[in-house]
Amino acid sequence: MMALYQRKGTVNATELLSRRSRGIRDAGTIIRLNMKVLRALLLQDSRDFIKVKQSKTSKSTIMYENGKIYFENYQKCYSCVHSEPQVLYKLSKRSKLEKFEDALLCQSPLDKTLPSPSDHKPSLIALTANNWLYRLSAETGEELQRVYLSSNHKFRYLGWDVPQEMFYVKSVQNKETSLARQAGITQNTVMHLAIFQVFPLEIVGILEINKKVFGNGVTDVVLSQGVLVVSYSNKSVKLYSLEHIVQSNMTEKLTLGKSSSLLEGKTVGEVPFGIPVNIQITDCPQVLFEASCTNNSIQIGGYPWHYIYTPPHKNDRGTHHICSVKDSTLAINGIQNMNCCSLESDGIFFHPDDSGRIIHVGPTIINVLKILGELNSGLPSKIVKDFFMVTHRNNTPTSQVTVTSSGRTVKRRIQQLDDDPDQETFRMVEYEDELDLLAVVVTNGEEGEGRAHIRLHDNQSGQLLRTVDLIEPWDETFRHELFFDKDTIVHIEQKSTNFCCHVYKLRAASN
């Protein structure tokens, strides 16, 4: 069989489509070529992000996810594919008992054929106040599937474990009342987790988080990267293998729509029995990893594996420690400190591009860091700067002494903050994975009214490629979210009890 000729020049679009239809391995590069073209267009001076005429407001939270904007508690969905957002669907009004408590958008390319055609459809997973889990078509809002969870536990929260193609439904936490304590009644159950696989939707099981097993002081539980993460009131975090827990403690494999002996032959996922607790944990699982940290906040990533945390000590406030997961060795230059004086604390996180880098965002500088180290080396890793970005500020120091019109000298008691709204300040960073661009929100209130613009930087070098001005004022006392999704920018702000959504689309710049 002849090897495919690797041509370095341009390739005809028809030839690429033909290769894809024949299953030739590099045919998937067509999407990468399309994104290169879009990136080139986006960075041209002849193109600009133009604000859609009318911003939309709502009394309830506005959500954006993958080209769709959700209003009225997910009841109304707009598509951002077109030049202006268009209504994709509107669901009928729901009662208070049937209202959506939480929702997740579920869609992904698939490498296998699923039992039902509807299993392939992008869907919205929605949890209702009365413990129903709905799978709705993301394009039409049509109900594809429904599962009743339980009449014994109140479920309220949804969360993804994306690498495992799983999501979980978390119940409210059981609080021990003063009356129960006075009566000597001990509440051992903290909460329940229902774990599902997607593509197709299948139940893994429901497990109970119990004080007898996991100890006292449990404040929260989440699933991430196939790990059960348990937070405690003493500022410690413990990690357990979910796979080990399921394999060692599952009493019966459940199938939605089939009978179960745990329900005395009743159907799994139907009213009023729902889904039984089929993962009965009797002994505490082996702890994979444990650390004490401020706000129970710990992040794991990088290569080799490292974790970022702030030790719960007064002297370590404002610092971020980067240590090896293998033996908790602090990396060289592993204590990162912005040394900034600001109302908002600096933020640090592993880069979402899976490069293993770290992004550290402060009010005046953004550092993109690399971890240098070998997996089996006995030497500690080293943290180095890959590149950095800085704000453009007037470096003239603000005088601490002023003279009034009467000639009286007045000393200022308060030093100007690093994130003062009157100065150019970094606010947030978003990563556009398909265009490989970093979108950095910068605010400046020098002219008396807060304004913002978005700086687009190359993700590999940090080079500034262009800026996009936001027309609406940016008030730092409000909560803001910004989404950069190929040819669309969405800015959502919360003004007191109201929410407002501003949309920008890439168009030819007006002369």
* Rounded average pLDDT: 88
User: Hey, roughly how much beta strand do the residues contain?
Assistant: 35-45%
What shape does the CA trace take? globular
Q: What's the end-to-end separation, in Å? A: 56 Å
The counted number of beta strands is 36
Structural class: mainly beta
What composes the largest sheet?
5 strands, antiparallel
| Unreliable stretches covering 5 or more consecutive residues | 1-8
Question: What does the model show?
Answer:
With 511 residues, the chain is mainly beta. Helix content is 8%, strand content 42%. It contains five helices and 36 strands. The strands form nine sheets. Strands 1, 2, 34, 35 and 36 form a five-stranded antiparallel β-sheet that branches. Strands 11-12-13-14-18 form a five-stranded mixed β-sheet. A hairpin with a 4-residue loop joins strand 4 and strand 5 (76-79). Mean pLDDT is 88; it is low at 1-8.
Q: What's this entry about, in short?
A:
With 511 residues, the protein is mainly β. Helices cover 8% and strands 42% of the residues. It has five helices and 36 strands.
What are the main properties of this structure?
511 residues, mainly beta, five-stranded antiparallel beta sheet, 5 helices, 36 strands, 8% helix, 42% strand, globular, disordered N terminus
Secondary structure elements and pairings:
Layout: H1 13-21, H2 29-42, E1 47-51, E2 56-58, E3 63-65, E4 68-71, E5 76-79, E6 86-90, E7 100-106, E8 123-128, E9 132-137, E10 143-148, E11 155-161, E12 166-171, H3 178-182, E13 189-197, E14 202-210, H4 211-214, E15 218-224, E16 227-232, E17 236-241, H5 242-249, E18 277-279, E19 289-292, E20 298-301, E21 306-309, E22 319-324, E23 330-337, E24 347-350, E25 358-361, E26 365-372, E27 382-390, E28 401-403, E29 409-411, E30 425-432, E31 437-444, E32 451-458, E33 464-469, E34 479-485, E35 488-495, E36 498-508
Parallel strand pairs: 14-18
Antiparallel strand pairs: 1-36, 2-36, 3-4, 4-5, 5-6, 7-8, 8-9, 9-10, 11-12, 12-13, 13-14, 15-16, 16-17, 17-19, 20-21, 21-22, 22-23, 24-25, 25-26, 26-27, 28-29, 30-31, 31-32, 32-33, 34-35, 35-36
